[in-house]
Amino acid sequence: MALREQHLPSLVVGEAPARAARRGARRLLLWSRLSGDVGALLVGLVVAGRLQETLVRAELVHPLGATGVFNAVAVTAWLLLFAGLGLYDSRRLVSAVDEFKLLVEGVALGTVGGVFLAFLLKLPTYRSWVLTTWIGCTAAVLGTRFAYRSILRALRFSGALGSRMLIVGAGREGRDLYRSISSAPHLGFEVVGFLDDTYPPGPAAPGLPDVLGGAAEVRAAVLDRQADAVLVAGGSVATETAERVYRDLGGMDVDLHLSTGLLGVAASRVAVQRFGEAPVLGLRRVELTGFQQTVKRAFDLAVAGLLLVALAPVLAACALAVRLDGPGPVLFRQRRVGRGGREFTMHKFRSMVPDAERRLAALVGRNQADGPLFKLRGDPRVTRVGRVLRAWSLDELPQLLDVLRGDMSLVGPRPPLLGEAARFGAWLPNRLRVKPGVSGLWQVSGRHQLSFEDYVRYDLFYVENWSLVMDLCILLRTIPTVLRRSGI
Predict the structure, then answer these.
(1) Alpha helix (H) residue ranges in 326-398
(2) What is the DSSP string of 376-394?
(3) CA torsion angle for 287, 290, 293, 294 (degrees, to 10)?
């Protein structure tokens, strides 16, 4: 009750207009998303119609007839289908990949429905019209949604549009949720406090928001802090607490989210199921089947082979620069631990002096990384050419040969040194379930700026949630990472 008595009178009056403005902005964005889809679908349909007119003039097909009624009904049906798939539900925080999958599915289903509608309206349907409608509407909707997401991300990054959030549960899970949310500003959430029955009011930990009170005070805290959303750390609070929060928020204009307690699980693996009257979360197993391993291997061979051919002049220039820079071999060979614990030799362009490994013992005391990793900015062992190679990640290019040999993959966890592997802990076997990669989720998510704990978390997330789409996304994200020279 102290929370309500101390803060409510002053803050509700001052911040209610701001909360109302945020709600209004979100409604405006919803209507803009709806309008964008209408425009995109009409563009796709008009393009298909224009193509048919061209074919009619060429006397290849007969005229379609009046399509105005068809277009209006088709767009309305498409919007209802999109709504049924949850594409207008602001409470569903789907990733870009998941949203695009739903859009492709929705347009495909809508196209099939459009053929049936054309049959009812006695409009002749041609394969060219069906194909153009499907491709044109898919491309137009995806382009519109991509532009919408880009604008939304920019608004959230700038702070012009965001949501204030309370987290119920200030234990480890709640803190991990806070860090995950804080590291993803594109989500647009600002955590304004914790609620927990077992922690006293005050800072939950250094650098974290305050614990405002117990879970029973959630209504007062929402009004006091003008929160738009409440996130319950479901794995660390009692079931009775989660139920009480759910009931206490009844009738309030606030979004409620429940964590699964498994922060290393991708949302695409989670499905809501029902056991009788009890809703439960089912987790899809992720194991690389023989077919998936074949697909991944074929992808590695094709892309690595093309890159080696395309980058042959760059490889030759790098090799010549290393040779002219000083004594020592062009390639640096090092034993690493690969899939299933099997040792292999990894190759790089040499970026350090020839006796770099012997001089490591004298530099261990200056290590800037936590855990078993070694990192030292301004490492005196790095050569002049080596600094350039590392800055642009060019020293990693010979690993494309390791990919062709089958020791590595284009995407995967980084292979640990033999000495590092012995100190990695019990999680190492999970990490070694897949081949190590030239690039990976850790490299494109912060690389040297991340702690060893983050390094472990990203690697395990990749292993436990692998998909070919994830590999493609990581490879695409590797390009700007390299251009930002984050290999320094």
Answers:
(1) 356-359, 384-391
(2) -TT-TTB-HHHHHHHHTTG
(3) -160
Q: Is the pLDDT of residue 371 over 60?
A: yes
Q: What is the pLDDT of residue 366?
A: 79
More confident residue, 7 or 228: 228
Provide the 3-class DSSP secondary structure of residue 227. Answer: coil
- Output 79-85 pairs: Cβ under 8 A, ≥24 positions apart: 79/34, 79/37, 79/38, 79/41, 81/106, 81/109, 81/110, 81/113, 82/37, 82/106
Predicted model pTM: 0.61
Q: Please spell the DSSP secondary structure of 171-207, one letter per residue.
A: SHHHHHHHHHHHT-GGG-EEEEEEE-SSS-SEESSTT
Cα distances (Å, whole numbers) of residue 63 to 66, 67, 124 = 9, 10, 8
Extract the tokens encoding 440: 């990976």
The phi-psi region of residue 113 (left if phi > 0; otherwise alpha if psi is between -120 and 50; otherwise beta) is alpha
Query: Of 29, 250, 256, 263, which is closest to residue 145 (Cα–Cα)?
Result: 29
SS3 326: coil
Strand 189-195 versus strand 255-258 pairing type = unpaired
**Which residues on neighbouring strands pair with residue 336, listed in sequence order?**
344, 417
DSSP E strand boundaries for 432-476? 437-439
CB 406, CB 298: distance < 8 Å:
no
Q: Look-up: residue for tokens 């927990």? A: 196
pLDDT-derived band at 3 (thresholds 50, 70, 90) equals: low
State how far the Cα of 390 lies from the Cα of 408, in Å rounded to an integer: 20
CA 256 to chain centre: 22
Nearest to 197 by CA among 227, 251, 259, 240: 240
Assign 57 a pLDDT band (cuts: 50, 70, 90): low
Task: Tell me how far apart the alpha carbons of residues 480 and 370 are, in angstroms, rounded to a whole number.
Answer: 26
Per residue in 425-438, is it b (16+ CB within 10 Å) or e — as a string?
Answer: eeebeebbbbbbbb
